[in-house]
Amino acid sequence: MGVEMRGTWWVPGPREKHKLSGVLTVGEDGYATLDTDGSTPLVAHWTSYGLVGKTEPATAAVVHGTASTGQAVTLLGVSGYGSSATYANAVVVGVWLDPQDGQAAADLPVFCGIEVELENLTEWAARSALRRPLLRTPGPYTNLVLATYTTPPDSKAVLDDGTVVELLGSLQPSETRTSLARTVTFTERVTVRITPTTLASVNDLLGHVQTVQRLLSFAVGRDCAVTSLELRLPQEENGRPDPRAELHLPLWPHRDDTVKPVEARKMLFTLENIAFADVMLAWARQHARLQGPIAGLRGARNGVLEGRLVSAATAAENLNRITNKSAVAMQKDTFALLRKTIFDAVEATEELADCVPWLKDILVNRPTLEWRLLDLASSLPTAAVTELLVDDGAGGGPQLEECTAAWAWATRKARNDIGHTSLPKATGSEGTVIALSATTVMVELALLQLLDFDEAHLVDVVQRRANAIARQVSTTLVDLHRESGQSDSPVAGLASGDGDPQQSNS
Q1: Bridge partner residues of 166 (DSSP)
Q2: Which of 192, 354, 423, 484 is most buried, judged by most C-beta within 10 A?
Q3: Quick one: pLDDT at residue 192?
Q4: What was the pLDDT predicted at 182?
């Protein structure tokens, strides 16, 4: 939400008596500009002796202000050039932050929590305060409809470090009047309140916000913007109850009111499928190590086809590497013998002596992308993978093993072709789209399984979101795989052994 406020502004410190009036503007995207009255920006005015021309910025860790409404305001990460404008990385309305001894203001542990609004949160929470069906009164007032409502119970999760994450529901009535009628509207809203066990800084709280935001974005299937942030201050002896401060800063993605909200039926899951406490705790425990696959999944959902395919394949490979760290291409002893035999032969040939460094780089005991994909599929419930890849309606059609092999082959070929030539030559655009769709859903299923969703829910996700992929895999990808001449080749299995496999383009 945009903010505009006039006030008096100064840089705290020995010269804070030098104050300027001006207008602070925070755009819908969170970027903040302070336009001071006069020709010199605030921080340049304060440090004018240090300015070099008009190109080098004057900076200040914080700028304080008092709005015309009497509110205290802190600007964080401030810079000003040779004009009247001053720019801030973040704005806190409601409190002055005063860092000492070089400590960053955003790292000051002075807040007891934060309350957040996010896009699609209310729909995902699947909680309604309105009780349906609505009651129609008997008797002469047959046109009168009564709506009963009760604020739904709050959902609470306690993380391993003691931080409490709560969903708070509210129902806000409003009305408009005309000479003919009065219209009453109810607005349902769900927010997230995060309360750590000790006082926390802005950066600490934003870390928790990011964890919740990524969970919601994963569940919804779209990046969900933060629409408001309220920092909660400790209760003061003579202060108002539950004192708060607004936080404004640029966060990705930006809010876009032109985009329609996601319907619950199109989400991976809602809180009708699982308790908030269970999924929030599971996500918080897994979030740190799954950031790579999560980022890859985001890339698979947005952008051009080639980039999306590479992101999806990388997410699947990375996810399998996380969950199956011991996977190697062959048994450790077998690989050691193979490596020794090859190096002995090369070193014995004088003309090949220069090839030894090259061999050391490429001769590693790690699975290929295709093996990773097959292993990822084998870790999921057979019913879910069958629903995703096999067309049961095609009598006598390809079975699970062939469909899985065709999908893994197509994804590997498309990823390698794009990496080497920028174009998916072997699979073409149609085959690449199918491989992308199947791989994206496979990653989603694997992540849901890590969050303890059962087989029935995984099958339901495929039926709701990917019911056309099986027919395309069973026909287009299987045909391409057969035409390649590799469909009859035995699929190498993953061996169990020691090692730390790395990403491979093979």
Answers
A1: 156, 193
A2: 192
A3: 96
A4: 87
- 439 close to 413: Cβ distance less than 8 angstroms: no
pLDDT beyond 80 at 154:
no
Contacts of 313 (CB under 8 A, 6+ apart): 369, 373, 411, 412, 414, 415, 439
Cβ-based burial of 144 (10 A; exposed 0-12, middle 13-18, buried ≥19): exposed
Residue 101 or residue 243, greater confidence: 243
> What CA–CA distances, in Å, run from 383 to 352, 370, 377, 387, 451?
51, 21, 11, 6, 18
List the one residue out of 152, 146, 150, 147 whose CA is nearest residue 126. 152
- Mean pLDDT computed over 32-46: 73
- Give 488's contacts (C-beta < 8 A, 6+ positions apart): none
The type of residue at 421 is T
Task: Tell me which DSSP letter residue 257 carries.
Answer: T
Chain centroid offset of residue 255 CA? 14
% of the chain surpassing 70 pLDDT:
83
Statement: the pTM of the whole predicted model exceeds 0.90: no
CA distance 246 to 111: 12
Q: At 167, which amino acid appears?
A: L
C-alpha 33, offset from chain centre: 28
Closest listed residue to residue 447, CA positions, set 218, 211, 210, 126: 218
Q: What is the pLDDT of residues 240-269, one digit of tens each?
A: 677 899 999 998 888 777 788 899 889 999
Using CB atoms within 10 A of its CB, is residue 371 exposed (0-12), middle (13-18) or buried (19+)?
buried
Structure confidence at residue 325 (pLDDT): 81
Least confident of 368-377, 389-398, 414-423: 389-398
pLDDT tens-digit series, residues 416-425: 999 999 999 9
d(CA 274, CA 194): 20
Question: In this structure, what token pair is assigned to residue 369?
Answer: 């992308």
Tokens found for residue 440 = 């994206």
Residue pair 399/389 in contact by the 8 Å Cβ criterion: no
State how far the Cα of 491 lies from the Cα of 489, in Å rounded to an integer: 6
Mean pLDDT score, 131-154: 54
Cis peptide before 234 (omega within 30 of 0): no
Query: How far apart (Å, rounded) are the C-alpha atoms in residues 426 and 23?
Result: 59
CA–CA separation, 506 vs 496, rounded Å?
A: 19
Residue with tokens 């069906």: 133
- Using alpha carbons, list the distances in angstroms from residue 310 to 291, 323, 481: 17, 20, 19
The DSSP 8-state label assigned to residue 81 in this structure reads -
